[in-house]
Fold:
Amino acid sequence: MPAIVVVGAQWGDEGKGKVVDILTEFADVVVRFQGGDNAGHTVIVGDEKIVLHLIPSGVLRRDTRCVLAQGMVVRPEAVVAEIDALARRGYPIDPARLAISARAHVVLPLHLAADEAEEKRRGARGIGTTRRGIGPCYEDKSARRGVRFGDLGDPARLRELVLDATAYRRPLLEAQDVPVPDPARTCDDLRAAWERLGPHVADTGRLVAEEVRRGRHVLFEGAQGTLLDIDHGTYPFVTSSTTTAAGACAGSGVAPSAIDGVLGVCKAYTTRVGNGPFPTEADPPLAEKIRQAGAEFGATTGRPRRCGWFDAAAVRYAVRVNGITSLALTKLDVLSVLGPEIKVCTGYEVDGAVEPEIPLDRLDRARPVYETVKGVPDDLRDVRSPDDLPPAAGRYLSALEKFVGVPVALLSVGPRRAETLVFDNPFRTRKH
Ligand code: IMP
Structure:
């Protein structure tokens, strides 16, 4: 099975970074295909805590090639900062290790300003974005006024594009009293970034297709989660990219027929950051208990995450829209704080009937239906093999598999690499 997509099956923050880190032991290439530095994951290696926003966590395995593909929106200074931070910790990144698509769009200071202005304009109806300029950058891409990495090496063209984008945004920023970034300064900074990143810029579509053709193990790392997908999420409270598995093809140039499996990552409970519907959100004292036990604070913004019960109807929906073949279940250890009984949402009552999937178009009149199941009170941190799993944990896993309809292939019981149980490795064989 050489090409596997890993996607978030909830609202992001499912622990994809850790799952990707575990699987990259078996992957030759790790590809990010959408989003930008709105994502963020903390990976713990030995005693080191490393937070990455753009570069896949695969970079921590020295012989893995990382790709930022054309579906991404990338802030050049942020990549440079990550390359420098990794080098300081003993992970030098040369162009053979990290390729950036010439067609990936560049997040400009203008986009950060526009993100702020738009949230200000919306006021109480704000999306609660990460303010990383993601929406405005994708907006410029769709409006065909974006700047791409391949443009950075041509100073005259870059200047023309930045001036045009600034002319378009100026009245919108001024209307919200948000300062307009100086285009000359932007161009200078981008040229400096190009000096560092130019050697990494490549035709990644071809590069990834070639790796797949050679039968190498390629892992497509999704960011955010299914319910934040621009088409399949809780619109308008979503991000601006295709976070679902199909995005791996659109965003990297690999054909759907090349994908061999889709691993959906979900937590044993649910969290969400930012505004928008969250039907299984717990009341404040319980949410706080989960937040503290699960350290549920955003890796990018530090915001406290909203917390609630596992929504099997939402994950079942994610299984359908992504074609998920197996699940990675994370943070099972956190359930120990929730006592002897826990709730799982197994469907939604809407218009007098119970629906098995989250009814996104009728959420305003839908009510989650819960089943109470036995909790997992045991301390799972020291469990290292499936045979050591306490019966309560085994029962919970079986119940979730039944509710959701796909098997759990990987189970995480703590933040460290060792605190992971792999029942079924989607790559099956080791990397080349
Ligand atoms: P944006 O992607 O910054 O435009 O934010 C849009 C919505 O997606 C907001 O609700 C954010 O909190 C959410 N979001 C963006 N990136 C992530 C992520 O990596 N994890 C969880 N939520 C995210």
About this structure: The CA atoms of residues 234 and 277 lie 7 Å apart. The pocket of inosinic acid is lined by residues 12-13, 38-39, 127-130, 132, 134-135, 223-224, 228, 237, 239-240, 273-274 (CB under 6 Å). Residues 155-175 form the longest helix (21 residues). Residues 266-422 form a domain with the Adenylosuccinate Synthetase; Chain A, domain 3 fold (CATH 3.90.170.10).
